[in-house]
Amino acid sequence: MYYQPEIETIKRSELQKLQVERLKRSIDIALHSPFYAKILGEKGITSDSISTVEDIRKLPFTTKADLREYYPFGLVATDMKNVVRLHSSSGTTGNPTVICHSQHDLDQWANRVARCMYMVGIRNTDVFQNTSGYGMFTGGLGFQYGAERLGALTVPAAAGNSLRQVKFITDFGTTAIHAIPSYATRLAEVLFECGIDPRKDTKLKTLIIGAEPHTEEQRKRIEELLGVKAYNSFGMSEMSGPGVAFECTYQNGLHLWEDCFLMEIIDPETLEPVPDGEIGELVLTTLDRDAMPLLRYRTRDLTRIIPGECPCGRTHRRIDRLKGRSDDMFIVKGVNIFPMQIEKILLQFKELGTNYLITIETIGNNDELMIDVELGELFTDDYSQLQQLTKEITHRLKDEILLTPKVKLVDRGSLPQSDGKAVRVKDLRKK
Amino acid sequence: MYYQPEIETIKRSELQKLQVERLKRSIDIALHSPFYAKILGEKGITSDSISTVEDIRKLPFTTKADLREYYPFGLVATDMKNVVRLHSSSGTTGNPTVICHSQHDLDQWANRVARCMYMVGIRNTDVFQNTSGYGMFTGGLGFQYGAERLGALTVPAAAGNSLRQVKFITDFGTTAIHAIPSYATRLAEVLFECGIDPRKDTKLKTLIIGAEPHTEEQRKRIEELLGVKAYNSFGMSEMSGPGVAFECTYQNGLHLWEDCFLMEIIDPETLEPVPDGEIGELVLTTLDRDAMPLLRYRTRDLTRIIPGECPCGRTHRRIDRLKGRSDDMFIVKGVNIFPMQIEKILLQFKELGTNYLITIETIGNNDELMIDVELGELFTDDYSQLQQLTKEITHRLKDEILLTPKVKLVDRGSLPQSDGKAVRVKDLRKK
Ligand SMILES: [Zn+2]
Ligand SMILES: [Zn+2]
């Protein structure tokens, strides 16, 4: 019912036709907002400027700073009486960002979320428990509306109160859960503490995880703990919320719904597109939002397009799980590097701990990349073994970042500890 | 658009026809649930047992204890695949109560809330901020869906964070708010603390207040503080949530939507109906709920039907604001008395404080009702004035409870203080 083969497996050429049509429509609509009237007007851009998908590059970017400057309603492209909901960020620094929705927008959003959930096997016979915060958090109402549309039995548990979550899981026979990865792990702990083995004593089979960066290893661990399949979900409030990109049952990247979003991956320095398969900043244009279209919105999220076709038959391209924020990117010898790339490799070595430090320094006339990483608790101090490990790490890092770093293994506890967000990169170059 | 004169001003005779038809249908549906199959089956009751509205008295009552005993799904009357949402109480003592909804139920619930909001002048040009908790609290999703259906711009602020609520009110031009009375007062305080006079510096004009008992004096004070009209809302999760009864712009009682609920007011002791206008326990039967109809549900809420017609032209009868819980009722000399009746009268005397104590004692062969009440801070100690005041209070109380109590004015601070729920009634009678 929420599988639409004519859209999800559409031929790329047909998809591009649809995208051009919807892009032109979105520009027509956007021109009714003060912000786009100004910035598109200055460049003389109208829907007539677009005849292919690539023509989107004629448009200027939209940034979070623009949303803040035109706070609260300067990007709204319709009469306010057509707006039926807004979602506001918490805005801890400066003005919050506000996204406005028409009834059409909420409908399409719910349809998209229903499509994602259907794709991973959730049906009207499932019991879906949503542990996201409700209210302004788009993960709450977003999944609520989508799951209701699908006809699942929704349990709007909202965030917190793990014992109550556990009671819901067991008493209502919950089969599918939406949670951030760390909370999914926490729930597993509480279940076991209550003497409930989630693999045998519950009906859990599907977990939707999003919002928080996590590795493939973490996913596997959560899947084993809870006895579920865990699927990555990508969304952001600027793009309505959840339902932007989602993994299919092959778990090999997230299909981004290209009938609703036009995707670009750009180099955050040059702002030019990167070749397919390379990491860059995700830029999204809404193709089916009426109250407040966003054109070429710089998400600051880093990802890459996964080349090739997905065995599921869907033609919407897949993005890789997020690689961090573009603000974290640094450039060494002309190569863009993201801390997440390095972290991903280091995490693959069981011999290593979790603490590391990236240093970039000018030595002579060259910029050098150095990576200090702590050893794990029980690893040997046999010199040849350490040397062999160093060599292997260096090799694997070079494969990933196309640059040979100087890797140094250090004792556990010898790198600076930090609470919360660790400072992982020290740039000591002369500017 | 959400004013339906053909329903809201329907002739009473037509309304009763509709009620009979819907009651029969609800019984047919309910018989599919294990609970009603059993308790209706035992009495041989089917929809054929009903030919007039009064025939509802053939049915047994349903209580919260029944919901708990048949937890979680024993009252569900449809295939679980048709259930799209449940709301669960927190269940601090014993099993929670769980209410299940089909898509039809959610639709009708949203329509009802939209009808209430439209009735007090809220339109698609309004900005509606909901300060209710979301998730399992029915005031969150209930008002969210209703207000969206009406086309208002909804601001799903959810509970707490008053400074952020104030920012939303001013930045988004909020015109209508849903809040419990104490939180509305709190918001007014915070607005003034921020240097914002809600009467001049905001667009607030409508307040929806519910869930918490409050007096007419409190309503008036909140209206003056915020510069709004405040309307009483009545709902409970067992009856889906908000949208059961609501005040019209005449603010003279709450129209209970009799196309969706069949109302009885009973004596909680004898379980017989009380005469129109007298206080008793509200008993409700859902007439338009498919997943989980409730028949003759004892709400434990005390109210009365306000006799006469409302100038607004709506024919659905009005209930008075809640008078407390039927569990609080006590009987003296064959008269049912509720503490709220006494409190209401005492609060009308500016000379009095807020602390009082009701004592019932057997003196000789008679039960006597005694009311000790503290004087206010600045009141005189002139004997004749005190005597005059005592006389007047006694007189007004007799009018209300049809019994002459012994009233004693006492010094401020001389009655036992209590944190939270005050113990207001001491029953010292020999049983
Ligand atoms: Zn796929
Ligand atoms: Zn009226």
UniProtKB/TrEMBL annotation, chains A, B:
One MF term in the entry's GO annotations: phenylacetate-CoA ligase activity
Pathway named in the protein's UniProt entry: Aromatic compound metabolism; phenylacetate degradation
A Pfam family this chain is assigned to: AMP-binding
Keywords for the protein's UniProt record, in alphabetical order: Ligase, Nucleotide-binding, Phosphopantetheine, Phosphoprotein
Occurrences of domain AMP-dependent ligase C-terminal (ranges): 334-429
Top-level EC class as recorded in UniProt: ligase
Annotated ranges, domain AMP-dependent synthetase/ligase: 77-284
CDD domains in alphabetical order: PaaK (cd05913)
Keyword field contains Nucleotide-binding: yes
GO biological process, one term: phenylacetate catabolic process
Catalyzed reactions per annotation: 2-phenylacetate + ATP + CoA = phenylacetyl-CoA + AMP + diphosphate
EC number annotated for this UniProt entry: 6.2.1.30
Signal peptide: none
InterPro entries assigned to the protein according to its UniProt record, in alphabetical order: Adenylate-forming_Reductase, AMP-bd_C_sf, AMP-dep_Lig_C, AMP-dep_synth/lig_dom, ANL_N_sf, PA_CoA_ligase
Subunit structure of this chain's protein: Monomer.
Family membership noted in the UniProt record: Belongs to the phenylacetyl-CoA ligase family.
Function comment: Catalyzes the activation of phenylacetic acid (PA) to phenylacetyl-CoA (PA-CoA).
Protein name from the UniProt record: Phenylacetate-coenzyme A ligase
Species of the source: Coprobacter fastidiosus NSB1 = JCM 33896
